[in-house]
Amino acid sequence: MTALYGIPVVILKEGTSRTQGRDALRNNIIAARALAEVLKTSLGPKGLDKMLVDSFGDITVTNDGAAIVKEMEVQHPAAKLLVETAKAVDAEVGDGTTSAVVLSGALLSKAEALLDQNIHPTIIIEGYKKAMAKALEILDEIAVKVDIGNLETPEGLSRVKPTLSKVLHTTLASKYLATPDLINKLIDMVISAAVAAAEKRGDGTYEVRLDNIKIEKKKGASLADSQLVYGIVLDKEVVHPGMPKRVEKARIALIDAPLEIEKPEITAKINITSPEQIRSFLDEEAKMLKDMVEKIAAVGANVVICQKGIDDVAQHFLAKKGILAVRRVKRSDMEKLERATGGRIVTSIRDLSEKDLGYAELVEERRVGNDKMVFIEGCKNPKAVTLLVRGANDMVVDEAERSLNDALHAARNVLRDPKIIPGGAAAEIELAMKLRKYAESVGGKEQLAIQAFAEALEEIPVVLASTAGMDTLETLMELRKLHSEGKIYAGIDVINGKVVEDMLAINVAEPVTVKKQVIKAATEAAAAVLKVDDIIAASPMKKEEGKAGKKEEGEEGEKSKFEFD
Ligand code: ADP
Ligand code: MG
Fold it and tell me: I need a surface site. Which of 69, 92, 301, 365 has the fewest CB within 10 A?
Protein backbone atom coordinates (compact mmCIF):
# COMPACT_ATOMS: atom_id res chain seq x y z
CA MET A 1 0.00 0.00 0.00
CA THR A 2 1.36 3.37 -0.97
CA ALA A 3 0.14 6.65 0.47
CA LEU A 4 -0.01 9.73 -1.75
CA TYR A 5 -1.17 13.03 -0.19
CA GLY A 6 -2.42 11.00 2.71
CA ILE A 7 -4.72 8.95 0.53
CA PRO A 8 -3.92 5.24 0.56
CA VAL A 9 -3.52 3.91 -2.99
CA VAL A 10 -3.55 0.20 -3.59
CA ILE A 11 -1.67 -0.72 -6.75
CA LEU A 12 -0.98 -4.36 -6.16
CA LYS A 13 -3.32 -7.28 -6.14
CA GLU A 14 -4.25 -8.69 -2.78
CA GLY A 15 -1.83 -11.31 -1.55
CA THR A 16 1.10 -9.88 -3.51
CA SER A 17 4.26 -9.78 -1.46
CA ARG A 18 6.74 -7.01 -1.77
CA THR A 19 10.30 -6.74 -0.53
CA GLN A 20 12.17 -3.53 -1.06
CA GLY A 21 15.59 -1.94 -1.02
CA ARG A 22 18.41 -3.58 0.90
CA ASP A 23 16.21 -6.43 2.07
CA ALA A 24 15.32 -7.31 -1.48
CA LEU A 25 18.94 -7.15 -2.54
CA ARG A 26 20.18 -9.26 0.37
CA ASN A 27 17.46 -11.78 -0.20
CA ASN A 28 18.52 -12.15 -3.84
CA ILE A 29 22.20 -12.35 -3.03
CA ILE A 30 21.60 -15.08 -0.50
CA ALA A 31 19.62 -17.13 -3.00
CA ALA A 32 22.22 -16.70 -5.76
CA ARG A 33 25.01 -17.63 -3.39
CA ALA A 34 23.11 -20.68 -2.24
CA LEU A 35 23.01 -21.94 -5.81
CA ALA A 36 26.73 -21.27 -6.21
CA GLU A 37 27.36 -23.24 -2.99
CA VAL A 38 25.60 -26.24 -4.48
CA LEU A 39 27.63 -26.17 -7.68
CA LYS A 40 30.99 -25.47 -6.06
CA THR A 41 31.72 -29.04 -5.09
CA SER A 42 31.27 -30.17 -8.70
CA LEU A 43 34.03 -27.98 -10.10
CA GLY A 44 37.03 -29.53 -11.79
CA PRO A 45 38.36 -33.05 -12.22
CA LYS A 46 37.88 -33.97 -8.57
CA GLY A 47 34.47 -32.40 -8.45
CA LEU A 48 31.74 -34.59 -7.01
CA ASP A 49 28.67 -35.72 -8.87
CA LYS A 50 25.15 -34.66 -8.09
CA MET A 51 22.30 -37.08 -8.15
CA LEU A 52 19.19 -35.32 -9.32
CA VAL A 53 15.75 -36.78 -9.11
CA ASP A 54 13.08 -35.00 -11.11
CA SER A 55 9.39 -34.86 -10.31
CA PHE A 56 8.79 -37.99 -12.37
CA GLY A 57 11.41 -39.90 -10.39
CA ASP A 58 13.93 -40.00 -13.23
CA ILE A 59 17.50 -39.91 -12.03
CA THR A 60 20.42 -38.00 -13.49
CA VAL A 61 23.92 -38.44 -12.10
CA THR A 62 26.29 -35.76 -13.33
CA ASN A 63 28.88 -33.17 -12.45
CA ASP A 64 28.16 -31.17 -15.56
CA GLY A 65 27.10 -27.71 -14.41
CA ALA A 66 24.74 -27.21 -17.34
CA ALA A 67 22.97 -30.50 -16.68
CA ILE A 68 22.71 -29.79 -12.96
CA VAL A 69 21.05 -26.43 -13.37
CA LYS A 70 18.75 -27.77 -16.07
CA GLU A 71 17.52 -30.57 -13.83
CA MET A 72 17.29 -28.55 -10.62
CA GLU A 73 13.93 -26.94 -10.24
CA VAL A 74 15.16 -23.65 -8.94
CA GLN A 75 12.40 -21.48 -7.50
CA HIS A 76 13.96 -18.25 -6.40
CA PRO A 77 13.97 -15.55 -9.11
CA ALA A 78 17.54 -14.43 -8.43
CA ALA A 79 18.85 -17.98 -8.45
CA LYS A 80 16.90 -18.47 -11.66
CA LEU A 81 18.80 -15.57 -13.15
CA LEU A 82 22.03 -17.46 -12.50
CA VAL A 83 20.56 -20.59 -13.97
CA GLU A 84 19.72 -18.68 -17.14
CA THR A 85 23.28 -17.37 -17.23
CA ALA A 86 24.67 -20.86 -16.93
CA LYS A 87 22.44 -22.07 -19.72
CA ALA A 88 23.51 -19.16 -21.91
CA VAL A 89 27.18 -20.00 -21.36
CA ASP A 90 26.45 -23.59 -22.24
CA ALA A 91 24.65 -22.61 -25.41
CA GLU A 92 27.40 -20.23 -26.43
CA VAL A 93 30.56 -22.20 -25.75
CA GLY A 94 29.36 -25.55 -24.39
CA ASP A 95 31.52 -25.49 -21.28
CA GLY A 96 32.30 -23.37 -18.23
CA THR A 97 28.85 -23.42 -16.66
CA THR A 98 29.96 -24.45 -13.18
CA SER A 99 32.69 -21.84 -13.21
CA ALA A 100 30.23 -19.14 -14.30
CA VAL A 101 27.84 -19.86 -11.44
CA VAL A 102 30.62 -20.16 -8.86
CA LEU A 103 32.15 -16.90 -10.05
CA SER A 104 28.90 -14.96 -10.00
CA GLY A 105 28.21 -16.33 -6.51
CA ALA A 106 31.62 -15.05 -5.43
CA LEU A 107 31.07 -11.67 -7.09
CA LEU A 108 27.83 -11.31 -5.18
CA SER A 109 29.27 -12.33 -1.89
CA LYS A 110 32.07 -9.77 -2.29
CA ALA A 111 29.45 -7.22 -3.30
CA GLU A 112 27.62 -7.86 -0.07
CA ALA A 113 30.70 -6.86 1.89
CA LEU A 114 30.87 -3.63 -0.12
CA LEU A 115 27.20 -2.94 0.53
CA ASP A 116 27.98 -3.25 4.22
CA GLN A 117 30.49 -0.45 3.77
CA ASN A 118 27.68 1.64 2.28
CA ILE A 119 28.91 1.52 -1.27
CA HIS A 120 26.03 1.95 -3.66
CA PRO A 121 25.14 -0.95 -5.96
CA THR A 122 25.64 1.19 -9.09
CA ILE A 123 29.22 1.88 -8.09
CA ILE A 124 29.82 -1.81 -7.55
CA ILE A 125 28.32 -2.59 -10.94
CA GLU A 126 30.47 0.06 -12.63
CA GLY A 127 33.59 -1.29 -10.95
CA TYR A 128 32.74 -4.84 -11.90
CA LYS A 129 32.18 -3.86 -15.52
CA LYS A 130 35.53 -2.09 -15.67
CA ALA A 131 37.23 -5.08 -14.10
CA MET A 132 35.55 -7.37 -16.60
CA ALA A 133 36.68 -5.34 -19.59
CA LYS A 134 40.22 -5.28 -18.24
CA ALA A 135 40.13 -9.01 -17.51
CA LEU A 136 39.14 -9.78 -21.11
CA GLU A 137 42.08 -7.68 -22.31
CA ILE A 138 44.49 -9.48 -20.01
CA LEU A 139 43.20 -12.86 -21.15
CA ASP A 140 44.11 -12.00 -24.72
CA GLU A 141 47.58 -11.02 -23.56
CA ILE A 142 48.30 -14.20 -21.63
CA ALA A 143 46.67 -16.57 -24.15
CA VAL A 144 48.92 -18.82 -26.19
CA LYS A 145 48.29 -18.67 -29.90
CA VAL A 146 47.83 -21.98 -31.67
CA ASP A 147 49.13 -22.36 -35.19
CA ILE A 148 46.41 -24.22 -37.03
CA GLY A 149 47.85 -24.36 -40.54
CA ASN A 150 46.16 -26.78 -42.83
CA LEU A 151 43.95 -29.35 -41.15
CA GLU A 152 43.40 -31.25 -44.37
CA THR A 153 46.97 -32.45 -44.57
CA PRO A 154 48.36 -35.06 -42.17
CA GLU A 155 51.25 -32.74 -41.24
CA GLY A 156 48.86 -29.89 -40.52
CA LEU A 157 46.69 -32.12 -38.41
CA SER A 158 49.60 -33.50 -36.44
CA ARG A 159 50.66 -29.94 -35.70
CA VAL A 160 47.38 -28.96 -33.94
CA LYS A 161 46.65 -32.33 -32.46
CA PRO A 162 48.80 -31.92 -29.34
CA THR A 163 47.10 -28.62 -28.49
CA LEU A 164 43.64 -29.93 -29.18
CA SER A 165 44.42 -33.00 -27.08
CA LYS A 166 45.45 -30.81 -24.16
CA VAL A 167 42.20 -28.90 -24.28
CA LEU A 168 40.03 -31.97 -24.76
CA HIS A 169 41.89 -33.73 -22.01
CA THR A 170 41.03 -30.92 -19.64
CA THR A 171 37.36 -31.10 -20.59
CA LEU A 172 37.01 -34.87 -20.50
CA ALA A 173 39.21 -35.54 -17.48
CA SER A 174 36.90 -33.48 -15.31
CA LYS A 175 34.14 -36.02 -15.95
CA TYR A 176 33.75 -39.19 -14.02
CA LEU A 177 34.34 -41.56 -16.88
CA ALA A 178 38.03 -40.97 -16.76
CA THR A 179 40.57 -43.71 -17.22
CA PRO A 180 43.61 -42.55 -19.22
CA ASP A 181 43.22 -45.08 -22.07
CA LEU A 182 39.58 -44.35 -22.47
CA ILE A 183 40.13 -40.62 -22.43
CA ASN A 184 42.78 -40.92 -25.14
CA LYS A 185 40.42 -42.93 -27.27
CA LEU A 186 37.61 -40.43 -26.82
CA ILE A 187 39.98 -37.55 -27.55
CA ASP A 188 40.99 -39.17 -30.84
CA MET A 189 37.37 -39.75 -31.74
CA VAL A 190 36.37 -36.18 -30.98
CA ILE A 191 39.31 -34.70 -32.91
CA SER A 192 38.56 -36.89 -35.93
CA ALA A 193 34.90 -35.93 -35.79
CA ALA A 194 35.66 -32.22 -35.45
CA VAL A 195 38.21 -32.30 -38.27
CA ALA A 196 35.79 -34.20 -40.52
CA ALA A 197 33.13 -31.57 -39.90
CA ALA A 198 35.43 -28.55 -40.15
CA GLU A 199 35.21 -26.01 -42.93
CA LYS A 200 38.02 -23.58 -43.61
CA ARG A 201 37.20 -19.89 -43.37
CA GLY A 202 38.79 -16.99 -45.17
CA ASP A 203 41.04 -16.03 -42.25
CA GLY A 204 42.63 -19.47 -41.98
CA THR A 205 40.58 -20.55 -38.95
CA TYR A 206 37.98 -23.31 -39.15
CA GLU A 207 34.28 -23.44 -38.46
CA VAL A 208 33.07 -26.73 -37.10
CA ARG A 209 29.35 -27.05 -37.66
CA LEU A 210 28.32 -29.11 -34.69
CA ASP A 211 25.02 -30.02 -36.27
CA ASN A 212 27.04 -32.09 -38.73
CA ILE A 213 28.09 -34.26 -35.81
CA LYS A 214 25.45 -36.55 -34.45
CA ILE A 215 25.75 -38.25 -31.10
CA GLU A 216 23.78 -41.48 -31.06
CA LYS A 217 23.50 -43.35 -27.78
CA LYS A 218 23.09 -47.09 -27.52
CA LYS A 219 23.02 -48.79 -24.16
CA GLY A 220 25.14 -51.91 -23.91
CA ALA A 221 28.81 -52.94 -24.11
CA SER A 222 31.15 -50.36 -22.58
CA LEU A 223 32.25 -46.82 -23.26
CA ALA A 224 35.44 -48.16 -24.82
CA ASP A 225 33.30 -49.68 -27.58
CA SER A 226 32.10 -46.28 -28.69
CA GLN A 227 33.03 -45.47 -32.26
CA LEU A 228 33.14 -42.75 -34.87
CA VAL A 229 31.08 -43.49 -37.94
CA TYR A 230 31.70 -41.51 -41.12
CA GLY A 231 28.08 -41.03 -41.93
CA ILE A 232 24.77 -41.17 -40.12
CA VAL A 233 23.50 -43.85 -37.78
CA LEU A 234 19.79 -44.30 -37.24
CA ASP A 235 18.42 -46.10 -34.20
CA LYS A 236 15.97 -47.99 -36.43
CA GLU A 237 15.72 -51.30 -38.20
CA VAL A 238 14.83 -52.20 -41.75
CA VAL A 239 11.04 -52.55 -41.65
CA HIS A 240 10.52 -55.82 -43.52
CA PRO A 241 12.44 -59.12 -43.36
CA GLY A 242 12.20 -59.52 -47.14
CA MET A 243 14.11 -56.31 -47.79
CA PRO A 244 17.84 -56.18 -48.45
CA LYS A 245 19.91 -55.44 -45.34
CA ARG A 246 22.69 -53.88 -47.35
CA VAL A 247 22.52 -51.54 -50.32
CA GLU A 248 25.60 -50.20 -52.06
CA LYS A 249 25.54 -47.00 -54.09
CA ALA A 250 22.36 -46.08 -52.31
CA ARG A 251 19.94 -43.66 -53.92
CA ILE A 252 17.91 -42.46 -51.03
CA ALA A 253 14.37 -41.09 -51.03
CA LEU A 254 13.69 -38.93 -47.97
CA ILE A 255 9.95 -38.89 -47.46
CA ASP A 256 7.90 -36.93 -44.95
CA ALA A 257 4.55 -38.52 -45.81
CA PRO A 258 2.91 -41.75 -44.71
CA LEU A 259 3.23 -44.74 -47.01
CA GLU A 260 -0.22 -45.62 -45.84
CA ILE A 261 -3.76 -44.93 -46.88
CA GLU A 262 -5.23 -42.36 -44.56
CA LYS A 263 -8.03 -44.19 -42.78
CA PRO A 264 -11.35 -42.39 -42.70
CA GLU A 265 -12.24 -40.60 -39.49
CA ILE A 266 -14.11 -42.74 -37.01
CA THR A 267 -17.28 -40.80 -37.58
CA ALA A 268 -17.22 -41.38 -41.33
CA LYS A 269 -19.34 -44.27 -42.41
CA ILE A 270 -18.77 -46.48 -45.38
CA ASN A 271 -21.65 -48.57 -46.52
CA ILE A 272 -20.41 -51.90 -47.66
CA THR A 273 -23.14 -54.36 -48.31
CA SER A 274 -21.56 -57.26 -50.17
CA PRO A 275 -18.33 -59.32 -50.02
CA GLU A 276 -17.45 -58.11 -53.52
CA GLN A 277 -17.54 -54.57 -52.29
CA ILE A 278 -15.15 -55.34 -49.45
CA ARG A 279 -12.82 -56.97 -51.90
CA SER A 280 -12.83 -54.10 -54.32
CA PHE A 281 -12.36 -51.68 -51.45
CA LEU A 282 -9.26 -53.55 -50.26
CA ASP A 283 -8.01 -53.96 -53.81
CA GLU A 284 -8.33 -50.27 -54.34
CA GLU A 285 -6.28 -49.63 -51.21
CA ALA A 286 -3.58 -52.08 -52.24
CA LYS A 287 -3.45 -50.52 -55.68
CA MET A 288 -2.91 -47.06 -54.27
CA LEU A 289 -0.05 -48.33 -52.12
CA LYS A 290 1.38 -50.22 -55.07
CA ASP A 291 1.27 -47.04 -57.16
CA MET A 292 3.21 -45.20 -54.47
CA VAL A 293 5.89 -47.85 -54.46
CA GLU A 294 5.97 -47.94 -58.28
CA LYS A 295 6.54 -44.21 -58.27
CA ILE A 296 9.42 -44.51 -55.78
CA ALA A 297 11.01 -47.28 -57.81
CA ALA A 298 10.49 -45.37 -61.05
CA VAL A 299 12.60 -42.39 -59.90
CA GLY A 300 15.40 -44.83 -59.15
CA ALA A 301 15.40 -44.98 -55.35
CA ASN A 302 16.74 -48.15 -53.73
CA VAL A 303 16.47 -46.86 -50.16
CA VAL A 304 13.47 -45.17 -48.53
CA ILE A 305 13.83 -43.24 -45.30
CA CYS A 306 10.38 -42.29 -44.11
CA GLN A 307 9.48 -39.87 -41.34
CA LYS A 308 6.00 -41.39 -41.04
CA GLY A 309 4.65 -44.93 -41.02
CA ILE A 310 4.84 -47.56 -43.76
CA ASP A 311 1.84 -49.85 -44.19
CA ASP A 312 2.40 -53.63 -44.21
CA VAL A 313 1.18 -53.87 -47.77
CA ALA A 314 3.52 -51.07 -48.87
CA GLN A 315 6.37 -52.85 -47.08
CA HIS A 316 5.60 -55.96 -49.05
CA PHE A 317 5.69 -54.12 -52.38
CA LEU A 318 8.90 -52.29 -51.42
CA ALA A 319 10.53 -55.61 -50.47
CA LYS A 320 9.52 -57.09 -53.82
CA LYS A 321 11.27 -54.21 -55.57
CA GLY A 322 14.42 -54.81 -53.50
CA ILE A 323 14.13 -51.46 -51.77
CA LEU A 324 15.46 -51.05 -48.22
CA ALA A 325 13.08 -48.99 -46.09
CA VAL A 326 13.16 -47.42 -42.62
CA ARG A 327 10.17 -45.74 -41.01
CA ARG A 328 9.31 -43.24 -38.25
CA VAL A 329 12.66 -41.48 -38.42
CA LYS A 330 12.99 -38.36 -36.26
CA ARG A 331 12.67 -35.00 -37.97
CA SER A 332 16.12 -33.94 -36.77
CA ASP A 333 17.60 -37.07 -38.33
CA MET A 334 15.71 -36.42 -41.57
CA GLU A 335 17.28 -32.98 -41.69
CA LYS A 336 20.73 -34.38 -41.00
CA LEU A 337 20.21 -36.91 -43.78
CA GLU A 338 19.11 -34.18 -46.12
CA ARG A 339 22.40 -32.34 -45.56
CA ALA A 340 24.53 -35.46 -45.51
CA THR A 341 23.18 -37.20 -48.59
CA GLY A 342 22.42 -34.10 -50.63
CA GLY A 343 18.81 -35.23 -51.00
CA ARG A 344 15.63 -33.30 -50.39
CA ILE A 345 12.80 -34.23 -48.04
CA VAL A 346 9.58 -34.50 -50.03
CA THR A 347 6.18 -34.19 -48.40
CA SER A 348 4.24 -35.88 -51.16
CA ILE A 349 5.23 -38.99 -53.04
CA ARG A 350 3.59 -37.63 -56.16
CA ASP A 351 6.22 -34.85 -56.22
CA LEU A 352 9.20 -37.17 -55.80
CA SER A 353 11.69 -36.86 -58.62
CA GLU A 354 15.13 -38.21 -59.35
CA LYS A 355 16.86 -35.01 -58.32
CA ASP A 356 15.39 -35.27 -54.81
CA LEU A 357 17.31 -38.45 -54.12
CA GLY A 358 20.30 -38.39 -51.79
CA TYR A 359 23.40 -40.51 -52.22
CA ALA A 360 25.52 -42.71 -49.97
CA GLU A 361 28.08 -45.38 -50.79
CA LEU A 362 26.49 -47.80 -48.38
CA VAL A 363 23.32 -48.21 -46.36
CA GLU A 364 23.41 -51.18 -44.07
CA GLU A 365 21.59 -52.60 -41.07
CA ARG A 366 24.02 -53.83 -38.44
CA ARG A 367 23.62 -55.42 -35.09
CA VAL A 368 24.69 -53.18 -32.21
CA GLY A 369 24.39 -54.92 -28.88
CA ASN A 370 20.94 -56.47 -28.77
CA ASP A 371 19.48 -54.09 -31.30
CA LYS A 372 19.79 -53.31 -34.94
CA MET A 373 20.76 -49.93 -36.31
CA VAL A 374 20.95 -48.56 -39.80
CA PHE A 375 24.29 -47.11 -40.92
CA ILE A 376 24.42 -44.66 -43.81
CA GLU A 377 28.04 -44.28 -44.78
CA GLY A 378 30.09 -42.60 -47.46
CA CYS A 379 27.59 -39.81 -47.86
CA LYS A 380 27.77 -37.20 -50.58
CA ASN A 381 28.71 -34.65 -47.93
CA PRO A 382 31.57 -36.23 -45.97
CA LYS A 383 31.22 -33.65 -43.18
CA ALA A 384 28.38 -35.58 -41.61
CA VAL A 385 29.62 -37.97 -38.93
CA THR A 386 28.15 -39.81 -35.95
CA LEU A 387 29.64 -40.58 -32.57
CA LEU A 388 28.05 -43.85 -31.55
CA VAL A 389 28.23 -43.90 -27.77
CA ARG A 390 28.07 -47.18 -25.90
CA GLY A 391 27.93 -47.75 -22.16
CA ALA A 392 26.70 -50.10 -19.50
CA ASN A 393 23.58 -48.16 -18.53
CA ASP A 394 21.57 -45.05 -19.29
CA MET A 395 23.41 -42.98 -16.73
CA VAL A 396 26.78 -43.80 -18.28
CA VAL A 397 25.74 -43.11 -21.86
CA ASP A 398 23.94 -39.91 -20.87
CA GLU A 399 26.95 -38.57 -19.00
CA ALA A 400 29.22 -39.66 -21.86
CA GLU A 401 27.02 -37.77 -24.29
CA ARG A 402 27.31 -34.62 -22.19
CA SER A 403 31.08 -35.00 -21.92
CA LEU A 404 31.52 -35.58 -25.64
CA ASN A 405 29.31 -32.64 -26.32
CA ASP A 406 31.52 -30.47 -24.12
CA ALA A 407 34.61 -31.84 -25.85
CA LEU A 408 33.20 -31.16 -29.31
CA HIS A 409 32.45 -27.61 -28.28
CA ALA A 410 35.99 -27.27 -26.91
CA ALA A 411 37.47 -28.49 -30.20
CA ARG A 412 35.22 -26.11 -32.11
CA ASN A 413 36.21 -23.22 -29.86
CA VAL A 414 39.91 -23.79 -30.44
CA LEU A 415 39.57 -24.19 -34.20
CA ARG A 416 37.42 -21.08 -34.37
CA ASP A 417 39.51 -18.85 -32.12
CA PRO A 418 42.86 -20.59 -31.91
CA LYS A 419 44.03 -19.38 -28.54
CA ILE A 420 44.35 -21.36 -25.34
CA ILE A 421 45.01 -20.43 -21.75
CA PRO A 422 46.35 -22.54 -18.90
CA GLY A 423 43.70 -24.15 -16.67
CA GLY A 424 43.86 -25.15 -13.02
CA ALA A 425 43.15 -21.54 -12.00
CA ALA A 426 46.41 -20.22 -13.47
CA ALA A 427 44.47 -17.67 -15.50
CA GLU A 428 42.33 -16.60 -12.55
CA ILE A 429 45.36 -15.99 -10.32
CA GLU A 430 47.11 -14.01 -13.02
CA LEU A 431 43.96 -11.98 -13.66
CA ALA A 432 43.49 -11.29 -9.95
CA MET A 433 47.05 -10.06 -9.61
CA LYS A 434 46.86 -7.77 -12.64
CA LEU A 435 43.42 -6.46 -11.68
CA ARG A 436 44.69 -5.42 -8.23
CA LYS A 437 47.33 -3.31 -9.94
CA TYR A 438 44.73 -1.91 -12.29
CA ALA A 439 42.45 -1.04 -9.36
CA GLU A 440 45.09 1.26 -7.93
CA SER A 441 45.19 3.19 -11.19
CA VAL A 442 41.42 3.65 -11.12
CA GLY A 443 41.14 4.85 -7.54
CA GLY A 444 38.02 6.02 -5.73
CA LYS A 445 35.26 3.73 -4.59
CA GLU A 446 35.33 1.81 -7.86
CA GLN A 447 38.80 0.72 -6.87
CA LEU A 448 37.24 -1.26 -4.06
CA ALA A 449 34.85 -2.95 -6.47
CA ILE A 450 37.69 -3.89 -8.81
CA GLN A 451 39.60 -5.32 -5.88
CA ALA A 452 36.50 -7.27 -4.91
CA PHE A 453 36.34 -8.62 -8.45
CA ALA A 454 39.92 -9.83 -8.14
CA GLU A 455 39.11 -11.54 -4.85
CA ALA A 456 36.08 -13.19 -6.41
CA LEU A 457 38.26 -14.65 -9.19
CA GLU A 458 40.40 -16.26 -6.51
CA GLU A 459 37.37 -18.27 -5.45
CA ILE A 460 38.12 -20.61 -8.40
CA PRO A 461 41.59 -21.66 -7.12
CA VAL A 462 40.18 -21.91 -3.61
CA VAL A 463 37.43 -24.28 -4.74
CA LEU A 464 39.76 -26.33 -6.94
CA ALA A 465 42.26 -26.62 -4.09
CA SER A 466 39.59 -27.78 -1.69
CA THR A 467 38.26 -30.44 -4.12
CA ALA A 468 41.85 -31.70 -4.26
CA GLY A 469 42.04 -31.81 -0.48
CA MET A 470 44.72 -29.12 -0.33
CA ASP A 471 45.06 -26.35 2.20
CA THR A 472 43.27 -23.53 0.45
CA LEU A 473 45.01 -20.57 2.06
CA GLU A 474 48.49 -22.03 1.65
CA THR A 475 47.79 -22.88 -1.98
CA LEU A 476 46.54 -19.39 -2.70
CA MET A 477 49.63 -17.84 -1.11
CA GLU A 478 51.96 -20.09 -3.05
CA LEU A 479 50.23 -19.35 -6.34
CA ARG A 480 50.27 -15.60 -5.71
CA LYS A 481 53.98 -15.81 -5.03
CA LEU A 482 54.74 -17.77 -8.19
CA HIS A 483 52.71 -15.36 -10.30
CA SER A 484 54.40 -12.36 -8.78
CA GLU A 485 57.67 -13.96 -9.92
CA GLY A 486 56.36 -13.94 -13.46
CA LYS A 487 55.30 -17.60 -13.64
CA ILE A 488 52.03 -16.86 -15.37
CA TYR A 489 51.14 -20.50 -16.07
CA ALA A 490 51.45 -21.64 -12.46
CA GLY A 491 48.31 -23.34 -11.23
CA ILE A 492 46.82 -26.27 -9.36
CA ASP A 493 47.36 -29.83 -10.47
CA VAL A 494 44.10 -31.02 -9.01
CA ILE A 495 44.63 -34.67 -9.87
CA ASN A 496 47.87 -34.88 -7.89
CA GLY A 497 46.94 -32.28 -5.32
CA LYS A 498 49.88 -29.93 -5.80
CA VAL A 499 50.85 -26.57 -7.20
CA VAL A 500 52.75 -26.74 -10.51
CA GLU A 501 54.66 -24.02 -12.37
CA ASP A 502 53.29 -24.76 -15.82
CA MET A 503 49.76 -26.05 -16.31
CA LEU A 504 50.33 -26.38 -20.05
CA ALA A 505 53.13 -28.84 -19.39
CA ILE A 506 50.70 -31.15 -17.59
CA ASN A 507 48.12 -30.79 -20.38
CA VAL A 508 45.59 -28.64 -18.59
CA ALA A 509 44.43 -25.92 -20.94
CA GLU A 510 41.20 -24.29 -22.02
CA PRO A 511 40.06 -22.36 -25.06
CA VAL A 512 40.27 -18.65 -24.35
CA THR A 513 36.71 -18.23 -25.62
CA VAL A 514 35.35 -20.29 -22.74
CA LYS A 515 37.13 -18.31 -20.04
CA LYS A 516 36.02 -15.04 -21.64
CA GLN A 517 32.44 -16.21 -21.79
CA VAL A 518 32.56 -17.35 -18.16
CA ILE A 519 33.80 -13.96 -17.01
CA LYS A 520 31.36 -11.99 -19.11
CA ALA A 521 28.37 -14.09 -18.11
CA ALA A 522 29.24 -14.14 -14.40
CA THR A 523 29.67 -10.35 -14.34
CA GLU A 524 26.43 -9.76 -16.17
CA ALA A 525 24.51 -12.07 -13.86
CA ALA A 526 25.97 -10.43 -10.76
CA ALA A 527 25.15 -6.99 -12.14
CA ALA A 528 21.61 -8.04 -12.93
CA VAL A 529 21.08 -9.23 -9.36
CA LEU A 530 22.65 -6.06 -7.92
CA LYS A 531 20.37 -3.82 -9.96
CA VAL A 532 17.21 -5.14 -8.34
CA ASP A 533 15.88 -3.21 -5.36
CA ASP A 534 12.32 -4.35 -5.37
CA ILE A 535 10.79 -7.79 -5.49
CA ILE A 536 7.13 -7.81 -6.25
CA ALA A 537 5.78 -11.28 -6.22
CA ALA A 538 2.32 -12.44 -7.10
CA SER A 539 0.81 -14.67 -4.45
CA PRO A 540 1.43 -18.33 -5.15
CA MET A 541 -1.25 -19.84 -7.33
CA LYS A 542 -3.29 -22.38 -5.42
CA LYS A 543 -3.22 -25.81 -7.06
CA GLU A 544 -6.99 -26.12 -7.38
CA GLU A 545 -7.15 -22.69 -8.95
CA GLY A 546 -4.41 -23.50 -11.47
CA LYS A 547 -5.40 -23.28 -15.09
CA ALA A 548 -4.50 -26.89 -15.71
CA GLY A 549 -7.27 -27.95 -13.39
CA LYS A 550 -6.59 -31.36 -11.92
CA LYS A 551 -2.96 -32.36 -11.97
CA GLU A 552 -1.72 -35.71 -13.15
CA GLU A 553 -0.60 -37.90 -10.31
CA GLY A 554 3.01 -37.93 -11.42
CA GLU A 555 3.22 -34.16 -11.23
CA GLU A 556 2.28 -34.01 -7.59
CA GLY A 557 5.92 -33.67 -6.56
CA GLU A 558 6.36 -30.52 -8.55
CA LYS A 559 6.06 -27.32 -6.58
CA SER A 560 4.14 -24.41 -7.95
CA LYS A 561 6.42 -22.38 -10.19
CA PHE A 562 5.38 -19.23 -8.38
CA GLU A 563 6.51 -20.23 -4.94
CA PHE A 564 9.42 -18.47 -3.32
CA ASP A 565 11.64 -19.91 -0.64
P1 ADP B 1 32.83 -26.08 -15.89
O2 ADP B 1 31.39 -26.47 -15.90
O3 ADP B 1 33.02 -24.71 -15.39
O4 ADP B 1 33.51 -26.35 -17.19
P5 ADP B 1 34.43 -28.24 -14.85
O6 ADP B 1 33.98 -29.20 -13.83
O7 ADP B 1 34.60 -28.71 -16.25
O8 ADP B 1 33.48 -27.00 -14.77
O9 ADP B 1 35.81 -27.65 -14.33
C10 ADP B 1 36.54 -26.70 -15.03
C11 ADP B 1 37.68 -26.21 -14.20
O12 ADP B 1 38.53 -27.28 -13.83
C13 ADP B 1 38.55 -25.24 -14.98
O14 ADP B 1 38.89 -24.18 -14.13
C15 ADP B 1 39.74 -26.08 -15.37
O16 ADP B 1 40.89 -25.28 -15.53
C17 ADP B 1 39.87 -26.99 -14.19
N18 ADP B 1 40.54 -28.25 -14.49
C19 ADP B 1 40.15 -29.21 -15.33
N20 ADP B 1 41.05 -30.24 -15.32
C21 ADP B 1 42.00 -29.93 -14.44
C22 ADP B 1 43.19 -30.56 -13.96
N23 ADP B 1 43.55 -31.76 -14.40
N24 ADP B 1 43.92 -29.92 -13.04
C25 ADP B 1 43.54 -28.73 -12.59
N26 ADP B 1 42.45 -28.08 -12.98
C27 ADP B 1 41.68 -28.65 -13.90
MG1 MG C 1 34.03 -28.17 -18.09
Answer: 92
